[in-house]
Specification:
302 residues; alpha+beta; three-stranded antiparallel β-sheet; elongated
């Protein structure tokens, strides 16, 4: 029986990025044969993907592919912010965006079945995903995507890897890029929900009206004044969440609206898509100390 040293484990981990304990187990099973241990890890990676599948993936990356009027925006999630910076994970997300743009899959299942080879894994997107789960040691999932193809030009903007915007437009590339940046910036305050007032969902307007009515009723003012207060609050809300009514972030006078800026640039925005990593996903709050203790206990038991 060959002695498994720390340097051997470290070497195998450097080659595969697999968790330390998995590397040690593989080397033990392979009786110290590095090549055989690497093969064993590759075989086991699919099983690890199944074990990781129940873990929450609320971090991740937005990737965008764009070529003329054809493009795609994709969100792929992982468990921690650390993995969202992993080169293999980033390459996988970008590959997914490219495939959506070029192959037009109907849904995530169809995307997962498309051919892809990366990091020694394949031959499909799903095989690569499972392989990377084993290699990196975290669950990951393709959450959503949208494809763009038509007569409209596309302007894109990524704020880091956590916020992505695609704007469909006709006219100035510069003006459209500014709009994409404006939409991304809105995530730090009142988020843009629609191009204009007519596009704001009715249920959101009704909810805002209800809140405004409750606040106005507390003022103790006459009914006719309360009605005007409610209507004023609703109109203010609609201006804040509709793109064309927002003040342009680069306005020299601090007053020019996006609509006025676009008109001056002879540009029309026909649609936009905004993705923010993890939005709507309930993040699991872990007791870090308890997690470390559990890992130490598990290691001692092996």
């Amino acid at each position: 029986m060959a002695a498994i040293t720390a340097s051997m484990v470290g070497e195998l981990r450097a080659k595969t990025d697999a968790p330390m304990m998995e590397c040690k187990k593989a080397l033990t099973e392979a009786d110290g044969d590095m090549a055989r241990a690497e093969e064993i890890l590759r075989v086991k990676l699919g099983n690890k993907a199944g074990k990781a599948a129940s873990r929450v993936t609320a971090e991740g990356v937005i990737a965008i592919a764009s070529n003329g009027s054809t493009g795609a925006i994709v969100e792929v999630n992982c468990e921690t912010d650390f993995v969202s910076k992993n080169e293999s994970f980033l390459a996988f997300t970008k590959a997914c965006a490219d495939l959506v743009a070029s192959s037009n899959p109907a849904d995530v299942a169809a995307l997962s079945a498309l051919p892809l080879a990366q990091d020694g894994f394949g031959p499909t997107v799903e095989d690569v995903r499972k392989g990377l789960i084993g290699k990196i040691g975290e669950n990951m999932s393709i959450r959503r995507f949208k494809r763009f193809a038509g007569n409209a030009k596309l302007a894109t903007y990524l704020h880091g890897t956590g916020i992505g915007v695609v704007v469909e437009f006709d006219g100035s590339d510069v003006a459209a890029k500014d709009v994409a940046m404006q939409i991304a910036a809105s995530t730090k305050g009142t988020r843009v929900l629609a191009i204009d007032v007519k596009g704001v969902p009715a249920d959101l307007i009704e909810n805002e009206r209800k809140i405004a009515a409750e606040k106005a009723a507390e003022s103790g003012k006459p009914a006719e004044i309360v009605t005007k207060m409610v209507e004023g609050a609703v109109q203010k809300y609609l201006k804040e969440v509709s793109l064309l009514n927002q003040v342009f972030v680069k306005a020299a006078d601090g007053k020019q609206t996006v609509e006025q800026m676009l008109k001056a640039a002879s540009t029309a925005v026909t649609g936009f898509t905004l993705y923010v990593v993890g939005e709507g996903i309930e993040k699991k709050v872990d007791d870090f100390a308890a997690e470390v203790a559990a890992q130490v206990a598990a290691a001692k038991g092996q």
